[in-house]
Amino acid sequence: MAKVIFTAWKNKAQLLDVRNEFYPPTSYDGPDRRAHACAVVEAWKLRGNVPHHVEATALLTDAILHDDAQTNSIFSIRATYSAAFCRFVTGLVDTKIHGQRRTMFQRAMDLGLPASFVELRHEATHREPPSLVVLRKASQRSLEWLWDNYWADIDGLNAGSQVSHDASASTKTALAQVLQEFSKHSESSEPQRQKRKRDQEVSVATDLVSICGSSSGGVKSLSAVLLKKSLFFGSERKIGESMNQSFDKWDSVLQKITETHPSFLMYLCEDLVHSLLFDATKDSQKNASAEALFLWLTHILSSANWESYQQYCPRAYILSACDETATYWAKMLSDRLKEHGGVRKSKSSRRSSLPSAAKKPAPSNANSDASSIIDEKLSAYGWAPVERWDSRALGMTATTSV
Fold first, then answer.
1. Pick from 131, 181, 141, 152: which is nearest to 25 by CA?
2. pLDDT digits over 299-318, tens only?
3. 272 Cβ partners below 8 Å, 6+ apart?
4. How many alpha carbons fall within 13 Å on the CB side of residue 357?
5. Is the full-model pTM beyond 0.85?
6. What is the pLDDT of residue 115?
């Protein structure tokens, strides 16, 4: 017996019309129809059986249309973005909805959802709403993810999705060829070879950036290819071997890619964490591949060579993943990251505790001039120091005895 599927739309043509309003073709030059698409989805919800991907697209699009500081407050804009984004992520990864006992991070990995979405959802739910810059970027990335994972495959003509699959495969093939060719070359300390090596690093990074730019998923594919081919450390690595040669070989290439595509470092760190913590075959502390992944993560997150790029690393997510995974490498990675944070703090405290002879205090008149300027600016906005703190409750007035 044929299986009956109830949909909120009358036929697939209606769904395709809504898709074209949410994601207008590049050749379209008519009016903006996104608000109409959101209204249609709202009507469909009254009928029921609306897929979560369709509802999430409408919520995120409506949040973007709500982003107008002339008519809406910044707080309401942030709240709308946060609510739409949280509902999008929760509907996909909430284990209570899907029944199977798995963490949200593991569920996100199964779906191919960026793990940073789970961390941002946690921040928006339990802490202050993220900044508008972060929310705007996350909403745009979410709509791109929804296109790739739902809307691109609803035509019924599998040609569209086949072309997308073929393009992704060809991108990975091109990336693998460039990376494998680079990994074959050996290092040398001779000046001539060193100059040739630097020129080659620039050339390889340029080729990889170009390939990534030609495909919407190129940056994510690059991270996947690096790990799949074990290009970071080689499949013959032994436990306890130094990784300095590998760091020296790949650092400049990966950093040049990050300068053009900052999201690459986020994908790379996420893939390294997933491979290290969520792969049962790497649970042993005697596993050479796991040790290499651990050393690469700690190198990127704590090395001075990567200091200017560490702002793009999903540090909060990595710590959360470590806390939720009871493995040897999870504990090692968590301890190392927390230790690194402590070292930074101790350095600043050591600087502040230098002997007075080593410091160069500013002249007292400079301090007083700066203080008076600050006082003048504050007083212009109604701020002024008080001589005595008044501890009475608001609204209470002083009384005099007679």
1. 152
2. 999 888 898 988 888 887 78
3. 227, 293, 296, 297
4. 0
5. no
6. 76
